[in-house]
Write a structure and sequence with these properties.
There is one protein chain. This protein is mainly alpha-helical and 224 residues long. It has one domain (2-223). The chain contains 9 helices and 4 strands; from the N terminus they run H-H-H-H-H-E-E-E-H-H-E-H-H. The strands form 2 sheets. Strands 1-4 form a two-stranded antiparallel ribbon. Helix 2 packs parallel to helix 9, helix 6 (115-133) packs antiparallel against helix 7 (140-164) and helix 7 runs parallel beside helix 9.
Amino acid sequence: MERSQDLKNPLKAAITRPQRISIIIIILFHAVGLIGCSLPATDVLFLKLVPWHLLLMTVVIIYNHDQLEGLFFLFAMIVFLTGFAAEWIGVHTGWLFGNYVYGETLGIQLSRIPLMIGVNWFLLIYSTGVLLQRTRIKSRIIRILTGAVILVLLDILIEPMAIHFDYWHWANNHIPLKNYVCWFGLSAVLLFGFDQFKFKQQSIVAPALLIIQFVFFMALELLN
């Protein structure tokens, strides 16, 4: 009976102790990062920790995925490679997103593209996919389009801080409309992929990460 209630009310499903601890870790590290990146005495140090922060969040998300199996890692690899390839096309041709270059903050680069950018695409797509999975939206098309809009809204928040903290930089300091159009399109394609894998309903941890990222970048902009 309890399982039946959870299926009818997916947003009210019980949160386990490991999931609570994971959410606390996500909140704590984002809060510390927010303070560290906002203080002139520590911002340089904390920016060097950004790749490690992304890796930690990836470990937390993977740990909380129910039924880890080959299909999950296949999905993660597809998103990583697709996101990385799209960024390569964007940086080297300008066909996608616009004319931009990456700075040093995201760490080790391959052909001028940070490896962490593929990891970040995985975190964003997976977290958004799980969030929509836990809603009552039945239509696949509406779920995908809603998720793509959510990720565009997040990108709008990220862009000013990304430039400020040397994540990436735009030619003539102008963010083109094409950037948001391509974010929407690529997000929709990858969310369609998430839907095709038909993962069982996952915990609230990944959606919590997505929500905290919204709060983090809004607070970061206010403090900087």
